Amino acid sequence: MTNLLQIDTSIRTAKSISRLLAKEFVEQWIANNPNNVVTYRDIGQFPIPHVTEAWMDAADSSSDKSTIDTIGELFLSNELVDELLVNDRYLIATPILKFTIPSTLQTYIDLIIRNGLTVGNNEHSSQGLLHNKKLLVIATQRNNYPHDNQDEVVKYFESYLRHIFEHIGVINISFIYACNQSTANMERAFALSDARKAIKGFISDW
C-alpha cells in the first residue's frame, strides 16, 4: 500500500486543466492498485493564510516553551507537515502563472518549511528530513513554453520547485507539462494528449 498526498492549487474549478489531469492521474493510479490511499488538499479553493509575525515567532520558539497562542498559530502548519510525513508520494497540480507558481502554492510552501520537522540544521548546513518520498508536479501553461527546449520560463519554474523540495529532503521529483491551454485548438489537444501519455507512463512505476 502506498499513500499519496494530492494537492490542487488552481483557483479555477471546472475550467482547471491541472485539476482535470490530476484527477485522471489519481483515478488511474488507484485503479492500478486499489489498496493505495489518497489524502486530498485543495489550496486553490481553500487557500493557506499568509505567514504573519506571530506565526514566525511561534515557529522560532522551542517546543518546551509552547503556549496556547503558539500552538494555535502553528496548528495548520503542523497539520500540513504531518501530511508530508505520513504520505509516501506527493502530487501537486498547478498552473504556471506570471512565469512562476501561484500564490496559493507559495503560501503552502511557507508553512511546510519548518526547522526540526522538515529541515534539520547544524552549525554548518541544513539537511532535509523527508526521506524516500517522490513528488510529481503536473503543470499547465496558457502559452507554449517548450520544456524540451529548456525554455527560461520552465527552467525558472522547475528549478525553484526542485530547490524547495530538495531542501526538505525530496530528491525524486518529476514534471508533466500541458502547454497551449489558453484556447481550444489542435495545439491544445495535442498538448493534452502528450500529458495524458506521460501520466500513463508514471502509473505502473511510480
Describe the structure.
With 206 residues, this protein is α/β, with parallel strands linked by helices. It has one domain: Flavodoxin domain (Rossmann fold, 3-Layer(aba) Sandwich). The protein is built from 6 helices and 7 strands; from the N terminus they run βαβααβαβββαβα. The strands form 2 sheets. It has a 5-stranded parallel sheet, with helices on both faces. A two-stranded antiparallel sheet has the order 4-5. The protein is globular and about 60 Å long. The chain starts with a strand and ends with a helix.
Please render the helix and strand layout as text.
Elements: E1 3-8, H1 17-32, E2 37-42, H2 53-60, H3 68-86, E3 89-95, H4 103-112, E4 119-121, E5 126-128, E6 134-140, H5 152-167, E7 172-178, H6 186-203
Parallel strand pairs: 1-2, 1-3, 3-6, 6-7
Antiparallel strand pairs: 4-5
In short:
By secondary structure, the chain is of the alpha/beta class. Helix content is 42%, strand content 19%.
CATH class division: Alpha Beta
Strand adjacency order, main sheet: 2-1-3-6-7
| Mean pLDDT value | 91
**Largest sheet report:** 5 strands, parallel
Low-confidence segments = none
* H/E series: EHEHHEHEEEHEH
Which architecture would the CATH scheme give at its second level?
Answer: 3-Layer(aba) Sandwich
What is the approximate shape?
Answer: globular
Strand content: 15-25%
* Number of beta strands: 7
What Rg, in angstroms, do the CA atoms define?
18 Å
The number of domains: 1
Helix fraction bin = 40-55%
The class by helix and strand makeup works out as alpha/beta
CATH superfamily: Flavodoxin domain
Distance between the termini: 12 Å
* Number of H/I helices: 6
CATH topology: Rossmann fold
